[in-house]
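User: I'm new to structure prediction. If I give you an amino acid sequence, what do you actually give back? Let's try with this one:
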Amino acid sequence: KKELFEGMVNHAYSHDYILNEKKFLDALLEREKMANTELIPGIALPHARSSVTEKLFLSIIIIKNGIDYDNPDLGPVKIIFFFGCDNNSNKEYLQLLAKSNRLLKTAGFHSRLLACSTVEDVLALMNEYDDDVSSDEHNHYLMIVTLNDPSRNGDVMNALVELGITNASIVEADSMAKTLAYEMPDFAGLSYMAQGKSKRSSLIMAHVEAKDTASKLAKILKENGIDLTVSGNGFIQTIKVEEVIGNFEEEIEL
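Assistant: Good question. You get back a string of structure tokens that encode the predicted 3D arrangement of the chain. For your 254 residues, that looks like this:
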């Protein structure tokens, strides 16, 4: 594994993405000590943020026979997404991590990536999944996501980060159906009829600058198994905000 990391860092250095091999390798190994970065069976996402990184980069390594990644529970690694980040690209770094995480969980992507035999094959596959999330609109909107399955909060947050949103707040509460059925005297005796549905829901609120962010979020969520067009899953509202006092951007330190 250490030899693999040394080779990855040397490759990044030879392409001018990092300024000092030893310092970046030390940062990469230090991050790996915190927790093994094989997060999905057969897939690892080693990453480091360092002042010796010239610019944000992603390197994709495919090892068809696999390599021991010191994580026996998940087995040998065949796909590696290797990230490096400078000190000024936190937001873009988080977006790249979030999108990579979603792609690697997308049905069919893993096997198609393993089948690639050239750099051109990999680039063609990545371009196929490359959706533009940027927008030219710069206004103020409050986007509110109501999610009826709080266990999927992580998937929603991952999608928000992919869209460049890091200012979201989450409120969890009992659903209205549960409150009516169990807590209001006027409705005492009613059965909770939403079989298979959570008795709790999540409200996720975020400031966005473009109205079409809601549709982009819905598209990403649908690709991840959360179809908001299906009754009972939840919905998204977008409300125009006339004035914002204070700084809505939240810088996440990495």
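You can read the tokens as a compact description of the fold. Here is one thing that stands out. Residues 112 and 125 are 8 Å apart (CA to CA).
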